[in-house]
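pinned: reference chain
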Amino acid sequence: MKNIQEIFVVDDDQGILDSFDALLGDDYPLAMFNDSSRALRLLYEKNPRLLFLDIKMPGMSGIEVLKWIRDKKLATKVVIVTALPQSHYEESAHQYGIYRYLKKPLDIDEVEEITREALH
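pinned: its structure tokens
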């Protein structure tokens, strides 16, 4: 395992953060954030390889965070995680070059597969 934080998870739902910790925490270094402002402070500095990002959050939305990441030209692979059904969110996310779009509730196999593909 590398000594850097390879995966960031940004979601205002503590249950989702706990799920990611249970799914990936034993195998990967994780940094968990329940708001986008805390995550932004470390995204640029750490440049994680993978980011699981909720769309609807207080403060900056996931789409705004995604745009910020692309404006800073970070190489982070971004997976949008959302319960929102509206297709315009998915279209906006694809416009900013997401890696994958994952719908809640989380599918354990899908999360593990995305992580393996993105990091290996």
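why pinned: The chain is about 45% helix and 20% strand. Residues 24-119 form a domain with the Rossmann fold fold (CATH 3.40.50.2300).
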